[in-house]
Description:
By secondary structure, this protein is α/β, with parallel strands linked by helices. The chain has 48 helices and 27 strands. The mean pLDDT is 93.
Amino acid sequence: MIAxxxxxxxxxxxxxxxxxxxxxxxxxxxxTDYATRTVLATDNSIYQRLPQAAVFPLDAxxxxxxxxxxxxxxxxxxxxxxxxxxxxxxxxxxTDGIVVDLSRHMNSILEINVAERWVRVQAGxxxxxxxxxxxxxxxxxxxxxxxxxxATVGGMINTDASGQGSCTxxxxxxxxxxxxxxxxxxxxxxxxxxxxxxxxxACTQPGRLGEVYRTARQIQxxxxxxxxxxxxxxxxxxxxxxxxxxxxxxGRFNLNxxxxxxxxxxxxxxxxxxxxxxxxxxxxxxxxxxxSFMDALRDANALLAHKPLSIxxxxxxxxxxxxxxxxxxxxxxxxxxxxxxxxxxxxxxxxSGEDAAQVNARVAAFVAHLQAxxxxxxxxxxxxxxxxxxxxxxxxxxxxxxxLGNVEGEIRPQPFVEDTAVPPERLADYITxxxxxxxxxxxxxxxxxxxxxxxxxxxPALDMKDPAQAALVKPISxxxxxxxxxxxxxxxxxxxxxxxxxxxxxxxxxxxPALQSLKGAFDPHNQLNPGKICAPPxxxxxLLKVNxxxxxxxxxxxxxxxxxxxxxxxxxxxxxxACYNYDPDDAMCPSWKATRERQHSPKGRASLxxxxxxxxxxxxxxxxxxxxxxxxxxxxxxxRLRNNLARSRGEEDFSHEVYDAMAGCLACKSCAGQCPVxxxxxxxxxxxxxxxxxxxxxxxxxxxxxxxxxTLPYVAYAPRLYNAxxxxxxxxxxxxxxxxxxxxxxxxxxxxxxxxxxxxxGVASVAALRELTPQQRSRSVVLVQDAFTRYFExxxxxxxxxxxxxxxxxxxxxxxxVNGKPLxxxxxxxxxxxxxxxxxxxxxALADCGVPLxxxxxxMTLVYRQEYLKVPGLNDCPKVLLPxxxxxxxxxxxxxxxxxxxxxLAHCTEKTNVPASTSQWEKLxxxxxxxxxxxxxxxxxxxxxYGHEAxxxxxxxxxxxxxxxxxxxxxxxALATGYSCRSQVxxxxxxxxxxxxxxxxxxxxxx
Length: 1007
């Protein structure tokens, strides 16, 4: 039996501060629950720091209330750290104080000035969100990041972010025109370039505003020579407290140079005015392949002579991981495989401009260089031409950070020395020494980066649960810091200093006191993200050191190794945050998009499970034995009812917080397909629910849902009676109020028997299939029934039968057998295992006869390929094909001019877990002279029975309206492959969508 779990309470002064904050008129949310604190304790780094609380301000006025209150003497021990997307690799937003999350509410684009090419945005706006809004105007916000679909503008400013194309477009600070910040004490700072006269006026202001300007000007005027000698002449320069650019090229004084990259240690950035640029009208990406990664690095200097927009590099480790990922399906054509001469490194060289002919001429000259130059061995090259093709290749490059975490075993690449910058001409020699350093410790590593800027992301592979390997972080960091210094570079060239700030004093030397005085002017009591970048003079807390901060591995090693391995799809989450994708037309994690609560994301749920498992172990509970130790349902009922009563009385148990996060999951499995590390929430969610409901009684609705497949065949004998009962208003009200279910579907009254007789459909049995001749088997197919299309959408089942019959195939109907997906979703894993074993044995017997098996609903059909294979004792289940997979081999061409265009709204589980599925539908339609365009859509919001549960109604509707609602009325008939999707459209929009099969039936016959 699982344990009741107590957790760490916030330090006493923090509840008092939060109470005072609420009393001051704060309008946002306050998060003191352990789930929220746990989720915000990690980012994409190796560190873990549990905050005391989190606050989610509604607007800048809320920020003023926070800053005003914390300046009061009674709250000078309070520490706060701003947080945006939370994907930093160096713990920049991690704190043991209060997290101030600006992403939940402060995410509006305030103004777009097309004529003057600038925008005003709140700090929580995501970069890709901004660029989507700018695209219709032909503009974009230039700094490019691998995390652009979840990185906030505030986070980019706070880390002075840059990435691909920085040699052309510069860093974030190069695009910041004005900033609106809130300083300690609540004063508002509007920073922008100032003339000397304006600077004089700024310095005479009272309070903290005047003090920060006076201090910054004094440093600039008195330390100019020292600044010139300390700051390196690199594209990436320094992130944070950039004294070298206090004066811009026009000689104006610009305080934004120190605010950009300050990691929230000087104030709260709440709004920014940014310059934006015209989108290049034409781009070509030259993908150059090498037999050695060092060849790719050494070639970069010669390639730079052609002045491309950027040069990105990727090593063999990342390439191999990409080949196993969903992304490879879209880019494989650009990286042809050669078994005799494998590609071990690539350079992605981009050329872009306004005129396609000019760009193509530059590309031609570049290709001529590749063909004529023999100083470096190149395996070949390909061209990705146009924005769509270039974007596809860069999507693979962007996933590099996450992909490096998706390796087998516990030794995994770790980010702690992964953003060094050196002069580009010295990069190859530098990396040679870097690799020798790692080789001396016997460490593997992966590499990718921006060779044009001299930045390479290197991640040594360590098992951070092993104390001996974790102890290597400090000596390797020390050695790399010294190595970069010898090569005229930086330890922190791109991703900020964060918890690696201990190297700041040594790097700045005599200039460090100037940084301290600047910090003291902004934050005299060291309350704003303390321990990062700089500490004010005489601060009680100095800079944090990498070996003095709690590491994830320190806590992970408290989890029993057997448990760790068993829950691998959760605990290996590395925090890369791909699940925070803001795009409503992307399938990844609809519950996060709808709620904006990070515990309702794959990363959040994985974090909660990790902590839950750790606390179970601390309570001496072996979760692997807990299921075996559970009593029978009836014997355990009294204890579960007592526990439920205790819960209703407010008894604390962290398990409840974990349950709330798991219950909000739609089990769509987009995370399993799209997460670079393959975090599979539905898999560990089911296991958690099984354990949780060993202690707490299930709601009645889960028993109804779990038993659905068992009861449907019986109630289907009296469809009129069933429909009359379920369709009555009083039954509907009863189900909603007392069971928590809405809009129960009605049984189809379609005359299936007539179709079966007309198409001479046989019952699939081993005996019947074995009687067939080999030729007859080659013209036969077994249709595997699922409960939804068989009983609720019978006409679709009939359509497949009629289509297959019309194509000359004999259809055999497999006896209806419980698939078990509803059981699995709700954690009835014992019953699911029995159903899976029984069904798999039946399917295997049929498949052994040599006739292909086909299932109609993608969510149900893919269970055979995924969940069945994880059932203990079930080592094999035959592949049940999706309809398009079978039709792809049997549907003949029927040449004719394109007469009609359709749009495909694909099921999220299908398109994320079987990436080729949508293109197969498109090709099938083209064979019949039809055009099918796959629409970019997120989740519909139904996902099995999720949308039918009353507790999910608001979220289900939000999810539907975020993406699907806007796709239904576009030109061309919309088609949907998922039963749940079609059901949701019927409920939410009163529209009946067809399945692609129905269109194929309409146009394919007669042949």
